[in-house]
Hints:
It is built from eight helices and eight strands. By secondary structure, it is α/β, with parallel strands linked by helices.
Amino acid sequence: MNFDPDSIERREGEVAIVTGANSGVGFEVAVGLARIGCTVVMACRNMEKARLAKAEILAREPEAKLDILQLDLSDYASIKAFAEDFRSQYVQLDLLINNAGLLDYSLQINNNGIERQFATNHLGHFLLTALLIDLMPNSSSSRVVSLSSLAHKKAEIFFDDLNCEQQTKWDAAYCQSKLACLMFADELQRRLQQSGSKVLSVCAHPGGTDSGLFENMPKLLYYAMKIFVGPFILHSNESAARSILIAALGNEVKGGEYFGPQGFLEMKGAPGIATRTEYSKDEAAASRLWDISETMTDQKFDLLLDKA
Ligand SMILES: NC(=O)c1ccc[n+]([C@@H]2O[C@H](COP(=O)([O-])OP(=O)(O)OC[C@H]3O[C@@H](n4cnc5c(N)ncnc54)[C@H](OP(=O)(O)O)[C@@H]3O)[C@@H](O)[C@H]2O)c1
């Protein structure tokens, strides 16, 4: 699939939110969107890191229109405050890039009693999307982009053990959370279509990159990956961002599509349609996940957009 981020038509006047824009893949997505004229709202939990990232983007793209708004996706109150803050400053949202994510190496339960990766990677973005989707113009260039991972292939939704307390694999909860992001993207697309909306829900994964995601990895393992494995299977964050940018901006993109790198082991390379598990296509499971997510966030999705 041909996609040259440097030859995308300009999107002057459009507004994009990128969660986790201060680091890694999200940072490069923010650069890509700023380059074509979008106003990019950097939704970050750490304002100091966000300010540094903004300065770095401006050094690369001096004309970039950037705004920083505080958002902690593991905290419902913070998500609601972010949505209000955004609404007080913007009347329209064209692109919502649900990029932020974390990878834990041991089980972490948040203040609401929910496993932290499921809470942050999936539920936080579920709530954020529900609170902002009515601001999206009724057009196929309005997109919600969810971030999944090759890791989704190792998981199912453990409906009887959402906190993964009975799972034996150390990364079960991360894999489940990334599968949830993919199934949310599909279910959102189905519901948008049913409601008559032209807004698209799409999904992408970046392949493998050496980003902040692995910061808390045991150090020996981290340096082994960096030195011996990394050069062969990882690509840069800039290259990884292309899958997300094509999902957000590609003219031919259809709702429900899933993009990722097409090179070695789907870890690196130019973007195209990504492979996925049969489980991830289970519509009954996706619908059940949606209902549970509404209950857990105490937030109903209103998709009756009814806009011209
Ligand atoms: N790197 C890979 O190989 C890889 C592979 C597959 C999928 N992914 C996915 O790609 C996405 C981007 O990850 P990355 O690799 O670019 O990692 P990264 O460099 O660690 O970036 C993750 C971003 O998410 C933010 N974040 C984490 N928890 C948050 C919270 N509670 N509220 C708000 N923001 C939060 C981080 O903020 P702080 O800087 O404050 O921590 C950071 O900005 C994630 O969804 C990840 O699952 C990455």
